């Protein structure tokens, strides 16, 4: 039996005057709860209206310099499109960051070692394949290489142009030096390597940096460059990563 049924049965067994008192008490409690709910509803409504009336046009202090771009929206439809920085300002901010400078410095040391052994010259026409944001392109330019081209699926002007590394938009035998640190990320690594070779003239150099590996992996990667002669490999540190540098010299056009 439910508690309500038990209560009703209990009250029916009480004397009639007491039953009347209980009914009156129930009525007073019900009236009190209704009034209380009305009061809470009125207070909530007034508070909401006051919040709407007092919503500031801006979240900046009144004595601050005017900044209309920080205007506080009154509702979800009241917005302004985000202001985009001009490209030169965006690049200036990016290139001045410590992360960017450190990575460019790391590539500069990498290319400087190739410059010292005569595989890279200031007059070389250099190609960076899958150049990312262009750290290696900037490093080569700062090293003194006058003609540097960077390509990637997503362009990052002015350092990197858009092009498919598996189908480079260049004639055969155009460059003296080709480099990539992203051969392992290529969808078709053999096609990627063949395109690097195709664009480098006979006697030119193809250099790649891959995750640090042993002789077996080095031989396998060098085998992707079918028209090149293996010159050597060594473990290096590049952008804070332990990597292996593999160098080939192109023998002839495919």
Helices and strands in order, then pairings?
Blueprint: H1 3-12, H2 16-53, H3 87-95, H4 98-116, E1 125-129, H5 135-143, E2 147-152, E3 160-162, E4 175-180, H6 189-199, E5 200-211, H7 215-222, E6 228-238, E7 241-250
Parallel strand pairs: 1-2, 1-4, 2-3, 4-5
Antiparallel strand pairs: 5-7, 6-7
Helix pairs in contact: 4-5
How is this structure best described in words?
The protein has seven helices and seven strands. 41% of the residues lie in helices and 21% in strands. The chain is elongated, with a radius of gyration of 37 Å. The chain has a seven-stranded mixed β-sheet, with helices on both faces. Helix 4 packs across helix 5.
Radius of gyration: 37 Å
- Give the helix proportion (percent range): 40-55%
Can you give the mean pLDDT? 86
Can you tell me the residue ranges where pLDDT is under 50 for at least 5 consecutive residues? none
Count of individual helical segments = 7
Indicate the structural class. alpha/beta
Number of DSSP strand runs: 7
| Strand order of the biggest β-sheet | 3-2-1-4-5-7-6
Secondary-structure element series: HHHHEHEEEHEHEE
Biggest sheet features: 7 strands, mixed
Distance between the termini: 94 Å
Coarse shape: elongated
Strand content: 15-25%
Keywords:
elongated; alpha/beta; 7 helices
What is the compact description of this entry?
The protein has 254 residues and is of the alpha/beta class.
